[in-house]
Design brief:
Blueprint: H1 3-30, H2 47-52, E1 61-64, H3 67-70, H4 79-86, E2 92-94, H5 102-115, E3 120-126, H6 152-159, H7 161-171, H8 197-207, H9 209-216, H10 222-230, H11 234-238, H12 247-265, E4 269-275, H13 286-291, H14 305-313, E5 317-319, H15 337-351
């Protein structure tokens, strides 16, 4: 047997073994969504393509929101897919896009209305970023402008739970990384940080090195860390009892007004579900938000004045009061698969 043949056979065996290991790792990760929740669900998200899948179906329901709607996207743990299983004979379309806000929800809603004949629209608003730094409604852009489109290699790595896990948990930590954030002034922050953000990061590196490394390698939610370091009074803003004077509340009312008008004009049944922030549900997760992300402590528990005002003012807005602190992923903020099931169950009760 020639040495070329031996090399080829060894390569083939190694390749087959590698593919089999990747397949088994993929299956293992996807069978444990609560522990490995952030791996392999991110794919390209283009409104034109998504809408095509919704055209021509009867009794459609359009679901709009951010990562709470898109999370676990192609699995049975996604809230839209849970709704799809429960609403037999009704096509449920997922128009959620991670990392976006009300401007994207409205823009996508307008596009979907122009291309389909959905009968019901569900908007999930998070009692967090959707009530903080709300974009001006007159700055809304065309729906495709918000799309997420990655190149083939990047999208493949993000879509595969196994490849995503290997990159983030094995390869990425091998390199030494530094967290680089810029000082940022949030318009709605009542008590911005008086300390330079770099000083805070240096302190975390010294006093909480394990957490610093996890943030540096994107194993923990860096978006929340950046908000906390720039605006530690974040939860004070959300629990401020003087709602009517809040600029974010006024902007949100404008969005709700336009969404309502579009729904009425097109005979679409509208439901808006507020997803509570787990900081306000009970004391279980408060310490994580304060000790790890470094937010200021707030005593308030229960629906925020912001949420209560909206629920009282609009009969089609509901607060998902069946969720508990255990329904949220630790140090993340998103819902567990069980939490999504409870959110879907609450939503269905409101639709009926």
């Amino acid at each position: 047997m020639s040495w070329i043949r031996i090399i080829f056979i060894n390569f083939l065996v190694f390749f087959i073994a590698g593919v089999l290991m990747l397949f088994l790792l993929e299956a293992f990760l996807k069978s444990n969504p609560k522990k490995y929740h952030s791996y392999g669900w991110v794919t390209n998200n283009e409104i034109v393509e998504i809408t095509k899948d919704c055209v021509g179906e009867n009794g459609k329901v359009g679901v709009f929101g951010d990562s709470f709607v898109e999370y676990y996207r192609d699995t049975s743990n996604n809230v839209t897919n849970i709704l799809q299983e429960a609403l037999i004979g009704t096509k449920v379309c997922n128009f959620g896009l991670s990392g976006t806000g009300l401007d994207t929800y409205l823009s996508r809603f307008k596009y979907v209305i122009s291309q389909t004949n959905i009968e019901k629209a569900i908007f999930y608003l998070y009692e967090g970023n959707d009530f903080f730094e709300v974009n001006k409604i007159n700055e809304i852009k065309p729906a495709p402008s918000y799309d997420r489109v990655d190149n083939l290699i990047f999208s493949t790595v993000k879509k595969s739970a196994a490849l995503n896990f290997i990159y983030r948990e094995i390869l990425n930590p091998l390199s030494s990384k530094e967290i680089i954030f810029q000082d940022f002034s949030f318009e709605g922050c009542i008590k911005p940080s008086k300390q330079n953000i770099k000083v805070k990061l240096d302190s975390m590196r010294l006093n909480q090195p394990d957490y610093y490394d996890k943030f540096a390698h994107y194993q923990l939610n860096t978006s929340w860390l950046q908000v906390a370091l720039n605006c530690p009074s974040y939860f004070e803003v959300l629990s401020n009892p003087i709602v009517e004077k809040d600029v974010n509340y006024q902007r949100l009312l404008q969005y709700i007004k336009e969404i309502t008008e579009i729904s009425l004009q097109n005979n679409v049944h509208l439901s808006i579900i507020i997803i509570p922030h787990d900081y306000f549900i009970d004391d279980r997760n408060k310490k994580d938000w304060e000790n790890v992300f470094q937010f200021n402590h707030v005593k308030h528990l229960g629906p925020t004045p912001f949420s209560s005002k909206l629920v009282t003012k609009f009969e089609f807005i509901h607060y998902a009061n069946n969720l508990s602190g255990e329904d949220y992923l630790k140090l993340d903020g998103h819902l567990t698969p069980e939490g999504n099931s409870k959110l879907a169950a609450y939503t269905i009760r409101q639709l009926r």
